[in-house]
From TrEMBL:
GO terms for molecular function: DNA-directed RNA polymerase activity; mitochondrial promoter sequence-specific DNA binding. One of its GO terms (biological process) is mitochondrial transcription. Residues 14-326 form the DNA-directed RNA polymerase C-terminal domain. DNA-dependent RNA polymerase catalyzes the transcription of DNA into RNA using the four ribonucleoside triphosphates as substrates. Signal peptide: none annotated. It is an enzyme of class 2 (transferase). It catalyses: RNA(n) + a ribonucleoside 5'-triphosphate = RNA(n+1) + diphosphate. Belongs to the phage and mitochondrial RNA polymerase family. It comes from Geodia barretti. This is DNA-directed RNA polymerase. It holds the Pfam family RNA_pol. PROSITE patterns: RNA_POL_PHAGE_1, RNA_POL_PHAGE_2.
């Protein structure tokens, strides 16, 4: 007998204890809960009539990139994140890993020492977190740390810095190549926030559902306190009366804007799931319901994503910024 956990086939042990094989899953407690639910269904004597309380979840295919592909009407990017029909589901993480590996192989053939040391080390797991978080503002330094964590143990520690730096550079290059329009939108959002901040105003916008958003990033000041024993410099927490922190305003705008679209899509899906009378729970881009309602939730999720992106989101944002801040942007 074989059970599947996120695409991994794990053979069941024939011994009486099961050998705790479920602990080898990516999410071991979820594997165990699923096993217990299946066992209860089989032992009920009538599995088709068994009432299951185990939620089934569906995740977006790197949903940050999905939003950017939809915003930019980027057909190539949309294909890689499953926004257009295809013969089989696409895996953007595996796609980026394949591009990185292709470049690594070319560099290794030319005698690049780091590329040679990375032979057999590039995988979906190594690049996944960085690909996932690039659209939420991860920096080169942050991406390098993420990749170093995945590579640690598979390569010597004295090579970890150079290897992780090489990989993160190739991941960023692959993303720029595959999702060029996403990079352009990010740059425009950052530039707009920078200009607004330099005019001593915090960046703000309104979501498609009418929710106003204001970025609360203001400069922090140091206050000196002198005593008979010593002098202390204390950092004073931000205050709305202080000038905006331009760097934080600029860097936070792309991820915060996409998060606001995430929340809009989640709210639309929740409202329509409620109207359809089905249970619904969500964590970011992971939507949960009972097994018998998965098809309904799947349909609602897709319909509301299309409904959201049928709105002229970027045009509306540009008009709002022009109305709110004049010709700053």
């Amino acid at each position: 007998c074989v059970l599947t956990q996120r695409g991994h086939h794990v053979p069941l042990s024939n011994d009486s204890t099961g050998g705790r094989w479920w602990q080898t899953g990516d999410d071991p407690w979820q594997v165990l809960a699923c096993c217990m639910e299946l066992t209860s269904a089989v032992r009920s004597g009538d599995p088709p009539s068994f009432i299951s309380h185990l939620p089934v979840h569906q995740d977006g295919s790197c949903n940050g990139l999905q939003h950017y592909a939809a915003l930019g009407r980027d057909w190539l990017g949309a294909k890689q994140v499953n926004l257009v029909p295809g013969d089989r589901p696409q895996d953007p993480y595996a796609g980026v890993a394949a591009m990185v590996e292709e470049q690594r192989a070319k560099d290794a053939a030319e005698g690049h020492e780091i590329a040679i040391n990375l032979e057999g080390k590039i995988s979906r797991k190594v690049v996944k977190q960085t690909v996932m978080t690039v659209v939420y503002g991860v920096t080169w330094v942050g991406g390098r740390l993420q990749i170093a964590k995945q590579l640690r143990g598979s390569i010597p520690d004295d090579q970890l810095w150079d290897c992780s730096a090489y990989v993160v550079g190739e991941v960023f290059r692959a993303l720029r190549q595959s999702f060029a329009k996403a990079r352009g939108i990010q740059d425009w959002l950052s530039a707009s926030a920078r200009k607004v901040s330099l005019a001593q105003r915090p960046m703000e916008w309104v979501t498609p559902l009418g929710l106003p958003v204001v970025q609360p990033y203001h400069k922090m000041y140091q206050k000196s306190v002198s005593t008979q024993l010593q002098g202390l410099n204390m950092r004073v927490a931000w205050n709305p009366s202080y000038p905006p922190d331009t760097r934080k305003q600029k860097n936070a705008m792309p991820p915060n804007f996409v998060h606001s679209l995430d929340s809009t899509h989640m709210m639309l899906t929740a409202l329509h799931a409620h109207r359809a009378g089905i249970s619904f729970v969500a964590v970011h881009d992971s939507y949960w319901t009972h097994a018998c309602f998965v098809d309904t939730m799947n349909r609602i999720c897709r319909e509301q994503f299309v409904t959201l992106h049928n709105e002229p989101i970027l045009s509306d944002l540009a008009q709002f910024l022009e109305h709110k801040f004049g010709d700053l942007t």
